[in-house]
Design a protein that fits this description.
Blueprint: E1 2-8, H1 14-32, E2 38-44, H2 47-53, E3 54-56, E4 59-60, H3 61-77
Parallel strand pairs: 1-2
Antiparallel strand pairs: 3-4
């Protein structure tokens, strides 16, 4: 499984709460499920950072998360 999403910082502290909840949720899934759950959630301050991470100068983080999932599947099959 791949958890994909984006949390964009706003003017309230909700960003911190949401990021922590998502991180904790993915951790719990990894502890409870027999398959790996890859963290593919971007946590960014602005649209420019988001665009840089979905095909811009920092690559495509969603694609990287999917490739990580495939590598984990291959590792589990050995």
């Amino acid at each position: 499984m791949v958890a994909v999403g984006l949390v964009l910082r706003g003017e309230t502290p909700h960003f911190d709460y949401v990021c922590k909840a998502v991180t904790d949720g993915v951790l719990q899934l990894n502890l409870q499920l027999p398959v790996p759950v890859i963290f593919g959630v971007l946590t960014v301050d602005n649209n420019q950072q988001a665009l840089a991470r979905v095909g811009g100068e920092h690559g495509h983080k969603g694609e990287e998360a999917a490739l990580t999932a495939l590598k984990m599947i291959a590792l589990m099959e050995t």
